[in-house]
Amino acid sequence: MSQNLLREETSPYLLQHKDNPVHWRPWGPAALAEAKAANKPILLSVGYAACHWCHVMAHESFEDDAVAAVMNELFVNIKVDREERPDIDTIYMSALHHLGEQGGWPLTMFLTPDGEPFWGGTYFPKTAGYGRPGFPDVCREVSRIFHDESEKVTKNADALRAALKEQAKAQAPGEPAPEILDNVADRLVRSVDPEHGGVGSAPKFPQPFLLELLWRSWLRTGDQRARNAVTLTLTRMCQGGIYDHLGGGLARYSVDERWLVPHFEKMLYDNACLISLLSDVATGTGSTLFAARLHETVGWVLREMVTEEGAFGASLDADSEGEEGKFYVWSETEIDAALTDFAPDDVADFKRIYDVTPDGNFEGHTILNRLDHPDDLPTEQEALFARMREVLFTTRAPRIRPGWDDKILTDWNGQMIAALAKAGAAHNEPVWLEAAQKAFDFIRTRMIMNGRLHHAFRADKLQHLAMADGYANMISAALALYEATADDTCLSQAKDWSEELHAHYWDEEGHGYFFTADDAEALVVRTRSVTDDATPSANATMIENLARLYYLTGDETYRDRANQIIRTFASDLARNFFPMCTYLNGLDTLLNATQVVIAGTGPEADALRQVALQSPLPSLVLNVASDDLPASHPAHGKTVPKDAEAAAYVCQGTNCSLPVNNPDALHSMLARPV
């Protein structure tokens, strides 16, 4: 069938390629069968709608008739949206890493007709240069080797298959050392850039899971170095060009070590992590900068990322009008023209503070930033600059906007729902909580089919069983909403999803959760991991979830499952703890959770609840005293003293404080490192 078959897909990324002369197929049995029948290798191209280099390769090669002719002659060409099919992306990106490549998107992999990888790369230029072959030459050579040197293909495919299966296998179980949390925090705090914050040089990623680990370390130990590393990094990001100073929201990463030049796409998951972290650090430090960035970022999410269904879309593109960042950058002339209603001296001050110069700071244009002036200015001047930014925001609005990928992903929505529920409760913002609840209600009603949670929704079409991280993140969302609202249906939903996850994803032999369900489409390997990538892994997230379920219910089954995951992956810490921050954060909650148990109802109880919700402790678990809990649970039997209307009990392990009925006293117990 010699035509492009993407026209009937719903993914915005796949639809971007529906008019390519390449005869793209969506992933599925039909495409694999076609490759077997024709005895052709498969060219698998994986990307996502907001990916700049995906657009570059598309414009150079996939829209070119001559290049497309080579691809169509030699391969069965399959296009995959990595956000819609993370199960496929995970396998083939891991295969690329086993080939010794760094990875990234677009992911370009060459597969046997059975779908087994044997070679690949990322972006290939159309023409050869700088020691790199041109993409048509790569295609011809790969095809030649497939047909003429099949033993090489078999050898590579066998080696990669073995490596992928070994990666998914359980290692020898272990037990994390008691001092592991403090030792890792000490190692990580010494790796933070003392000038610019963050870890490493260019490119620089926000690393929210690492920052949360350091924040927890400060709260647990009082180590000021950890606190400073978090506040330095957040300040540089919040004042850098990676942050949109007009519209709010964080870009995916910075291409330089200073956080000046972003890779301009905005991802839902990055900003969910930022909202959660900013909420904790703003309440823990009283920083007006972090509070402002929190409100601005939530404002962006509610303004630009909410779908007509009330859930959240996936991303905003890096490009508009074919240029990366064009929507966001300015010339000095444009700034001057927009701010003519302000005094010339004030405009000059704005340009000095926000790094606006005739030559610009990015390819002749200006990315607004305050890296050279990160500290708060006098209140009147900040208010003036806020009005100027509003004018610039309005001036920017008519520009051609970056594309919006409005598909609803269960896993990323779970992250944003949890973040908004947590931040909305902490900062007394009911609109944020309402948005979280609305998205949650959509997913638990419209993204269920045959009793099972599904992964992606767009154009009234629900697709693909949820991956394990979809369940894990929606359990996190349900628990965050339960603690924020005390709605028992949210806790019940978290428990139900936990059982579904265990029934269909649990590895009975090695323990931990597989990425895909036992009845999902069979791929070349069933993956299982504990390490964080751009988003946290399901296994790591579930340690936190299971710990909270244990503390909230007293059911030791949850604690036992959390411990099984911890022991299963403990040996991975010795190899590389850096991508295991979420695992370690969950371990911290299991070992060191601070439980606040509220007894009583009415305004007095609500006031105590609000103090607990405003705590900067990520490991705080907020519970309600109940006789339905097991006798071993700290909340069992807690009552209101005779001279009070409500009381709070602060518990560590099985030991609880005396009843506290004064909100200020409760605040003092929760606000400082212990």
**Roughly what fraction of the amino acids lie in strands?**
5-15%
Rough outline: globular
Helical fraction equals 40-55%
Low-confidence segments, given as residue ranges, are none
Number of helical segments? 25
Mean pLDDT across residues: 95
Question: Termini distance?
Answer: 67 Å
Q: How large is the radius of gyration?
A: 26 Å
What structural category characterises the helix and strand content? alpha+beta
Strand order, largest beta sheet: 1-3-2-4-5
Work out the number of β strands. Answer: 20
Main sheet characteristics: 5 strands, mixed
Account of the protein in words:
49% of the residues lie in helices and 11% in strands. The protein has 25 helices and 20 strands. The chain has a five-stranded mixed beta sheet, with helices on both faces. Strands 13, 14, 15 and 16 form a four-stranded antiparallel beta sheet that branches. Strands 18-17-19-20 form a four-stranded mixed beta sheet. Helix 8 (180-189) packs across helix 9, helix 11 (268-285) packs parallel to helix 16 (410-426) and helix 18 packs parallel to helix 20. It is globular, with a radius of gyration of 26 Å. The N and C termini lie far apart (67 Å). The mean pLDDT is 95.
